[in-house]
Amino acid sequence: MKKAICLLSGGMDSTVCLFAALAESYEPIALSIEYGQRHYRELSVARSLTKELRIRHYFATLSLPWKGSALLDEKIQLPKNRSEAAIPAEIPATYVPGRNSVFLSMAMSCAETQGADAVYFGANALDYSGYPDCRPEYLEAFAAAVTRGTKAGSDGKRIEIKTPLLRLTKKEIVLLGMKLKVPFGKTWSCYEGDVKPCGACDACLLRAKGFHEAGMPDPLLAVEPDPLLG
C-alpha cells in the first residue's frame, strides 16, 4: 500500500486531508508539530484522533524564539471579528513567518525516511486567512525545489504534495468532510486554545462560515469539550 505523510494540526482542514488520504487508499502517517503555538490544545485533539483511528503518529518539536506572530507571542493581540472581505485581503498577525516552508520540509524529510509517496497538506486558497504560503504558486515552487533537493528526487522518485482542499470553499470542505465521515466534533480550530472556541478569531469565523453555508450545525459546538485535552 502507498504511504502518505499527513500534516495534522488537529484542525478541520488537516483532519479532512487525513481522511482524504484514507479514502484514496494511502496508508497515512500523521505528523504534528509543536512550535510554541498558543492554541496547543490542537495537538491534544490530533493525538486523540489518531489514537482512535490507530494511525502511526509522529510529533516533532520546533523552537521559534524570535516569535513574530500572535500565535507565538501573547503580547500580540489576536485579530478578532474581521469582516469576511478583510480576512483573505490582509495578512494577519497570526501569520507565522516561514512556518509552512518549515512544516513541508519536515514532512518531506519524514516522507523520504518512511518511503512515502505523498505529503498531504491542508492548504486552502479560497476561504483562508490570507497567508502567502497557502497559495498555489508557492506550493508549485516548493514542490519543484524538493524534487531537486532530495535524494528521492535525484533517484527519480517524486514525492507528491497533495492539497485536496486547495481550491475548495469552506462550505465544500465541510461537505467533503461529511462525505468522508470526519468527526468534526473532535477537531479544534480556535486560535485561543481555551476550553471552548472563542467564536471571533479568523479560524472560528471561517469554520462557522463553512458550516453555515453547508446548512449544518458545527458538531464541536454541540458537545462539551474535554478539559483534559487543554
Coarse structural class? alpha/beta
Average pLDDT, to the nearest integer? Answer: 92
Going across the biggest sheet, name each strand in turn: 3-2-1-4-5
CATH topology: Rossmann fold
CATH superfamily: HUPs
What is the domain tally? 1
Helix content: 25-40%
State the distance separating the first and last CA atoms: 35 Å
**Strand/helix succession:** EHEHEHHEHHEHHH
Strand count: 5
Top CATH class? Alpha Beta
Query: Low-confidence parts lasting 5 or more residues at pLDDT below 50?
Result: none
- Please state the second-level CATH architecture: 3-Layer(aba) Sandwich
The value of Rg in angstroms is: 17 Å
Strand content: 5-15%
How many individual helices? 9
Name the shape in a single word.
globular
- Biggest sheet record: 5 strands, parallel
